[in-house]
Amino acid sequence: QQQQQQQQQQLEEEIDYDEETPIELPREAFIPHVFPNNEEWRQGKLLQRSDYFHRFKGYHKPQYLWIGCSDARVPADVIMGEDTGQVFVHRNIANQVIGTDSNIMSVMQYAVDYLKVKHIIVCGHYDCGGVRAACSAVDHGPPLQQWLRSIRDVRRLYKDVLNAIEDDEERHRKLVELNVVEQCLSVLKTGIVQKRRVRTGRHRLPPLPMPRGPPA
User: Fold this and answer.
1) pTM here?
2) Where are the alpha helices (DSSP H) in the chain?
3) Is residue 216 part of a domain?
4) Does 31 share its domain with 41?
5) Domain total of the chain
6) Quick one: which residues bind Zn(2+) (predicted)?
7) 194 falls within a domain
């Protein structure tokens, strides 16, 4: 770590901040560990299989559309144990499926109509910061405040169920699960999925709230 800090300081000193000249940063600037790590990963894959990267050229046929949380502790392909190219991923705070969000609707349209994915997975996780934020009395300000509104709608919809749970952590876990169920319903209600279901009869959505790490 000390060596990385020294490299970082050296890189910053080498950068010319002359206002008359456009700044050209070396690729290692500010993230000196990323590129060496990437090269180590690449070499490791090639040792396992010499044609590893050639397999992905020009043909993209994932089996799954994964709609999950942006939380860095929930990487889709790692959790599923799937190889590169099998999971088409969309992530946002608290795995929300909002019909007015052109981002996720575009992802769904592309995944369903063009990639022809066979399965759509909505995955939440316990200890979700987005769900906790939605339950707080804090005004987070736009755009986060608006984004959390749908989770608050879920909490209001299941108010009696949640209020019957005395333990705060158990109540949080239940809301995580209910949020996933409601997002699954939102997926099913989209015209994108409805049209595909009429044509093929496919697309089942297993709601998966996932814990972090080993089960308790």
Assistant:
1) 0.78
2) 2-14, 34-48, 76-80, 102-109, 129-135, 144-147, 149-157, 159-163, 168-189, 191-200
3) no
4) yes
5) 2
6) 69, 71, 125, 128
7) yes
Regarding whether 85 and 45 lie in a shared domain, the answer is no
Q: Which residue has the tokens 């984004």?
A: 147
Q: Is 125 annotated as a binding residue?
A: yes
The answer to whether 132 and 172 have CB atoms below 8 angstroms apart is yes
- Give the structural domain span for 66: 60-210
Catalytic residue set: 69, 71, 73, 125, 128
- Residue pair 65/118 in contact by the 8 Å Cβ criterion: no
pLDDT tens readout for residues 24-47: 666 656 677 888 899 999 999 999
67 domain-assigned: yes
Query: Does the annotation flag 119 for ligand binding?
Result: no
**Do 51 and 109 fall within a single domain?**
no
Closest CA to 69 of 85, 90, 86: 90
pLDDT in tens, 156-208: 999 999 999 999 999 999 999 999 999 999 999 999 999 988 887 665 655 55
